[in-house]
Structure formats: C-alpha cells, structure tokens
Design goal:
This protein has 339 residues and is of the alpha/beta class. It contains 13 helices and 14 strands. The N and C termini lie far apart (45 Å). Bound molecules: zinc ion (ZN).
C-alpha cells in the first residue's frame, strides 16, 4: 500500500474486521455489480469508496427523472441526457475514486456474456429487478463457486441474503421457482430511498467480508426489513437442499441461451419479449398500471402506453414492446411494469 492509500483508507484500516491486510486485499479485488439502479448505484459507490480495486457495473437501462430520488450516483443532467446507467455511474465513480479501475458495461446480462462479464468476480452483487437475471447469476455463481449477494427492495420492504456456493443454500434452495404472475415493482408499488440504502448496505457489508478475505464471517441468514414500520428480522437460511437442481444436481439451465426468455425483434421499432409460461392476471395488472399511463385490458391482452413506449402484455406473460428496437430496453420495460 502506498502512503496515500494508507491515509485515504485509514479509518477503514483502523476497524479490526478489515485492518491493513484486509485493505490490501480489497485493493487487489474485483467485484461485479449487476444492475445499476437503486441498489446497484449504492453498491458501486460504497465499494469504490472502500477501495475495491476493480469494479464492473452492468446495466441495460438509461437514467430517467423518476430514478433520481433513490439512485445514488445519478444527477439531473444524466436524466436529461437519458445517459445509460452503467456509463453515468462509471463516470461518477471516476470522480469519487480515480485510483480504482471501473468498467461500465451497457448491456443485458445473458447466458452468452455471463462468462466474460462475471468470470473475474470475487463477489457478485445483485442490483437487478427480476428473477430471470437472478437465476442466471445463481447458475453462473454456483457453477464457478463465486459468492453472490441477493437483494431486493420494493415499497418499504426489502430482503438480503448472501450465497456462498458449497457452504450456504443457493437461491434455488430457497426459491425453487420464480414467483408466479406479475409482481409488485418499484414502478407500480413505489419504493423508499432509505429502504434501498439499508438493503444495499447489508449486501455490501457481506461483500466486503468476502473481498477482504473473511468469507467465513459471512453468516448464512436471510434478513428482511420493513423500513417504514421499522422492523428488521433475521432468520437462519435453510440448509442446502441436496436435491436442489442448481447446487445439488449441478444443472444450470440459465447458462444455456435457449432456456432464457429471449427478446425477439418483431418488425420495425418493436420487440417481442417471450416469457416462459407465466400466467398473468390482466385485470389486476391494469389496476396497478392505470396510475402510470393509459392502461386498457380485456381477457386476452393489456395495452399500456408509457410514452414513448407502448406495451401489449398477453395473458401468458408474453409482451410486445413498441417504440424501441433494442431487446435490452424492452426487457427493462417489462421488468419495470410487469415485474
Ligand atoms: Zn441450491
């Protein structure tokens, strides 16, 4: 460590859980943040300030004004310019800590780029908003033995859980199947910025233990928070399921491109998002989307206009997104509004 580094990180080095050896390990470490929204921007800012030597940030979306109340690295100019989140975050991090290496990747994480983007990670932080991507991260992380930290936050309610392959239950041990139907999202149920920072802090604390060589100090537990009611609850994670398809039988279907819901260009300026069978209650979704734009459902489909986009969502979970030819944007809109 250089004298400048020793000074810069001195208050963190004084903390016995990290110390000089831990700080040196952090400076040599590489973390990947998947999703650069509310959780991910907090992860990235905290890890950069802590001196994690290499950060990869992955996001498929761009900054909008409605992001600014909770997405810690973005400014009004980023929203005005519709900056890609990964690029805006990387630029901001370079100003916060110019001594580390930050790579902003504007892309959808898929089976085909997972090895390139996640392969060098010592830990992966979940800043995503959908279970498809989480199962992909879980498959990749378990297959390579890379720890990752699951997190989610909607309205006032959040959850965090570390996954250490080989030691703790994986995501599929706890959630064998994705939640059925449309889920509440930050776009439909709102979200509090203090919830996001609380959940992201729990995730980063575990990530720092892993990166500074103290992975044994990470406890296998599930933390849930209701930040509005002030309740924090921790339970031991269940033991690993020997029959778990992922960490037990070591089957990794999400690493095969064909298994993941592809988004297909279906003509000029429109993309079809193929979800796996996922029946959706269109009337219920209509009532959730109505405050956000023009929403009209019949028994077969829901038509939703969120300028400049139009989404047509079918009862089986499929959707056609008009107004973009970019599958990543279409998937992001789907995750936002359908969940
Ligand atoms: Zn498992």
């Amino acid at each position: 460590m250089t004298p400048a580094e020793r000074l810069r990180y001195s208050r963190q080095i004084l903390f016995p859980g990290i110390g000089e050896r831990g700080q040196e390990a952090l400076l040599r470490s590489h973390a990947v943040v998947v999703g650069c929204g509310a959780l991910g921007t907090f992860h990235a800012a905290a890890l950069a300030r802590a001196g994690v030597g290499a950060l990869t940030l992955i996001d498929r979306d761009y900054v909008e004004p409605s992001n600014l109340h909770r997405q810690w690295l973005f400014e009004e100019a980023d929203a005005a310019d519709a900056m890609p989140k990964a690029a805006a975050a990387a630029r901001r991090l370079a100003a916060i800590n110019s001594t580390i290496e930050v790579r902003g990747v504007v892309a959808d994480l898929t089976a085909s780029n997972a090895a390139e983007l996640l392969g060098a990670a010592a830990v992966i932080l979940d800043g995503t908003d959908n279970f498809d991507t989480r199962y992909l991260i879980n498959d990749f992380a378990v297959s390579r033995g890379i720890p990752w930290i699951y997190g989610g936050a909607v309205a006032s309610y959040g959850i965090a859980m570390p996954i250490i392959p080989g030691r703790t239950a994986c995501l599929r041990c706890v959630y064998p199947h994705p939640p059925a139907g449309a889920q509440p999202t930050c776009e439909t149920a709102g979200v509090l910025n203090v919830l996001v920072s609380a959940v992201a802090s729990l995730q980063v604390a575990d990530a720092l233990k892993i990166l500074c060589g103290c992975a044994d100090a990470v406890r296998a537990r599930i933390t849930t928070i209701d930040i509005w009611n002030g309740g924090i609850r921790q339970i031991d994670a269940p033991p690993r399921d020997p029959e778990c398809p992922t960490c037990g039988r070591r089957e990794f279907p999400y690493l095969e491109e064909s298994a993941r819901a592809p988004a297909i260009l279906c003509g000029r300026n429109a993309v079809q998002v193929h979800e796996r069978t996922r029946p959706i209650d269109l009337a219920e979704l209509e009532s959730r989307l109505a405050p956000l734009g023009q929403a009209r459902a019949n028994e077969f489909a829901l038509h939703f206009v969120a300028e400049p986009y139009e989404l047509t969502i079918f009862a089986d979970g499929r959707a056609i997104v008009k107004g973009t030819a970019d599958p990543a944007i279409a998937r992001a809109l789907y995750a936002k509004y359908v969940g």
